[in-house]
Design brief:
alpha/beta, Aminopeptidase, eight-stranded mixed sheet, binds zinc ion
C-alpha cells in the first residue's frame, strides 16, 4: 500500500530552479498534511490504521495458517502445534508478551477422548495498559480447524484429490485480524485497559479451548471479550454482531467507527439475521459470556456460505479487500472499549 506521507522531500535544489520549486511546494504540502493529521482525530486514526494494518500482512498470515503443510490445524495434531508456534511468534513481533505470571505463550487443555497425553494449545499474548490497571479486554479468534481426510466423521466426505480442510476463512481470517489488532493497539498510547489476545484451539470440537480458559478466568477484571470469526467472505460487505443480550453493541461500534472514519451513516456493523442458526452458542464468545457481561463475536460470513466446513475453504477464496476493511474498521470501532 502507498504511504500517504513522505518524510523526505525529493532532492533537486542543486539541479535546476523548476525542480527546486517543486521540491519546496512538496515540502510545504507535507507540512500542512502533518498539521492536519495532528489536528484531526479522524485523519490521524485513519492514517494509523492504514499504515499499520495492511493487506500484505493479512495475506502473509493466511498463507501460512491455511497452507496444506498445517494439514487443517486439527486440535492435538502437529499441524495445530505448528500453527500455535507461528501465532506466538507473530504475537511477539507485534509487541505482545506472555501473560504476566505465566511461563510462556501457551495455555494447554486435554483434548476430549484422547487421554491426558494429547493437549490442545490456546496461544495468549498480553499488552499492558498505558497506565497501571488490573482490568482487561480480551480479543480472541480460534485458529484450529477440522484437520484432514478420515479424521472427519461429521462433515461431508472430502474429495479424493484434496483431503485437507484448510480453514482459510474459518478461522485463519479471524486470527490474522487479531494479529493486526495487536500491532495497532501496541502503537497506541491511550489504552485504558490491559489487552489480552487469545488464539483459541478446540473450537471446532465444541468450544473446548475457550471453555477450559473460561473456567480458570478471574472474570471480575475483564470488561469485555471480543471474538472474531470468518471475516474473509462477506455476505453484504458488512460484518454482523453475534451476542447473547447487549443490544447496544451495534450502536456503540457504529458510532465509534463513524467518529473515526468520518462516515457515521455507514453502519458497518449489522445485526445477526440468522437466528435459526443459534450462532450465539456456536463460537468462543459463548463460554466467556457466562463470566463476562459483554462478550460477543464479530462475523463477516453467512453460516450458509458455500465453502463453510468444506475442503475448498482455501486462501484463493478470500476477499482480502473486505478482510482489510473489516480489520481496520474493527480496530477503530473497538476503541469504544479500549480508549
Ligand atoms: Zn468452523
Amino acid at each position: 500500500m502507498n504511504h500517504p506521507l513522505q518524510f523526505h522531500a525529493p532532492g533537486g535544489f542543486y539541479i535546476n530552479d523548476s525542480l527546486s520549486i517543486t521540491s519546496l511546494s512538496y515540502s510545504m504540502k507535507t507540512c500542512w498534511l502533518l498539521i492536519a493529521l495532528c489536528a484531526s482525530p479522524v485523519l490521524f486514526a485513519q492514517h494509523k490504521t492504514d499504515s499499520i494494518i495492511t493487506k500484505t500482512s493479512l495475506q502473509e498470515t493466511l498463507a501460512v495458517l491455511a497452507s496444506d503443510s498445517l494439514e487443517g490445524r486439527l486440535t492435538g495434531t502437529i499441524g495445530a502445534e505448528k500453527a500455535a508456534y507461528f501465532i506466538a511468534d507473530k504475537m511477539m513481533r507485534a509487541g505482545l508478551t506472555p501473560l504476566p505470571g505465566t511461563t510462556g505463550w501457551f495455555d494447554s487443555f486435554p483434548v476430549p477422548g484422547q487421554g491426558k497425553k494429547t493437549v490442545g494449545l490456546n496461544v495468549i499474548g498480553f499488552l499492558p495498559a498505558s497506565w497501571q490497571i488490573d482490568s482487561s479486554i480480551i480479543f480472541s479468534a480460534h485458529y484450529d480447524h477440522l484437520g484432514k481426510g478420515k479424521n472427519l466423521t461429521y462433515m461431508e466426505p472430502p474429495d479424493k484429490e484434496d483431503e485437507i480442510y484448510n480453514g482459510a476463512n474459518d478461522n485463519a481470517t479471524g486470527v490474522a485480524a487479531i494479529l493486526e489488532l495487536a500491532k495497532y493497539y501496541a502503537a497506541n498510547t491511550h489504552n485504558r485497559y490491559n489487552l489480552v489476545f487469545i488464539a483459541f484451539s478446540g473450537e471446532e470440537m465444541g468450544l473446548v479451548g475457550s471453555t477450559a480458559y473460561a473456567k480458570k478466568l478471574k472474570s471480575k477484571t475483564v470488561k469485555a471479550a471480543i471474538n472474531l470469526e470468518m471475516l474473509g467472505r462477506p455476505t453484504n460487505e458488512r460484518c454482523y454482531i453475534v451476542a447473547l443480550g447487549n443490544h447496544h453493541l451495534r450502536k456503540q461500534l457504529n458510532t465509534t467507527l463513524g467518529k473515526f472514519n468520518g462516515n457515521p451513516a455507514e453502519k458497518f456493523f449489522g445485526a445477526d439475521t440468522y437466528s435459526e442458526e443459534q450462532l450465539e452458542y456456536r463460537s468462543d464468545h459463548y463460554p466467556l459470556s457466562r463470566k463476562i457481561k459483554t462478550a460477543f463475536t464479530i462475523m463477516g460470513t453467512s453460516p450458509a456460505d458455500d465453502y463453510y466446513h468444506s475442503v475448498d475453504d482455501e486462501f484463493g477464496t478470500i476477499d482480502f479487500d473486505f478482510l482489510l476493511k473489516a480489520t481496520r474498521n474493527i480496530a477503530l470501532a473497538c476503541e469504544y472499549f479500549t480508549r
